[in-house]
Design brief:
By secondary structure, the chain is α+β, with helices and mostly antiparallel strands. The chain contains six helices and nine strands.
Length: 208
């Protein structure tokens, strides 16, 4: 595999560092515009972690144990790149960034496991769908040491699909002061709530 020149790598590293430190007090859009020249280049890379990934993530096992070939059979190319190879979509490229609903659930695009409720989502201005919390137990966190820095990666607990990263203490006016920065490609949205099963209408109880 041919790597880009050292100068380009340094510029990319600087761009990623800036993106992961976006604060609520400093408009995220300005930071993204400053780094937009590299966002498409980053997304086009065939790997999500340039240098190394979390050792704990590589040792984890998940209920959904499909092989890479089985995942390729059900995911499109971009979904596979992000969910299974830990890629990143360009900022502002997915419809879920600016999509909001009063009800419903965001599910894993790989295994359909419920991940976030609609009321977990908030406007962060970072360019990716942002959530202040997840459905209990639905998201697993790992230390991610790729790109020469330490971040917290979040994956689907059911299949291990890469969702994005979570950041704390950025000052957003949310109950948790956390931002789950999630790739829209990693998600599907359902207006129904698969987490809470609703009783079927018109069904009468049977009597013994």
């Amino acid at each position: 595999m041919r790597l880009p020149p050292l100068a380009a790598l340094l510029r990319i590293f600087s761009a990623v560092s800036s993106l992961t430190r976006v604060q609520a007090s400093a408009p995220a859009q300005q930071a993204l515009r400053h780094n937009s020249a590299y966002s498409g280049y980053l997304a086009a890379m065939p790997f999500g972690s340039l240098f190394s990934s979390s050792s704990s993530a590589s040792k984890m096992t998940y209920p959904d144990q499909r092989t890479p070939d089985e995942w390729r059979a059900v995911l499109n190319k971009e979904q596979f790149r992000i969910l299974r190879e830990k890629g990143t979509e360009p900022a502002g490229s997915h419809k879920f960034d600016k999509f909001f609903s009063e009800s419903g659930v965001y599910t894993c695009a790989g295994c359909n496991a419920p991940l976030y409720k609609a009321n977990h989502k908030f406007k962060s201005g970072c360019g990716w769908p942002a959530y202040f919390d997840s459905i209990p137990g639905a998201v697993t966190r790992h230390e991610d040491r790729s790109w020469g820095m330490s971040r917290t990666e979040i994956v689907c607990t059911n299949c291990g699909g890469h969702l994005g990263h979570v950041f704390k203490g950025e000052g957003y006016p949310t109950p948790t002061d956390e931002r789950h920065c999630v790739n829209g490609v990693s998600l599907n949205f359902s207006s129904d709530d698969p987490v809470v099963k609703k009783p079927e209408e018109g069904v009468k109880e049977s009597k013994a």
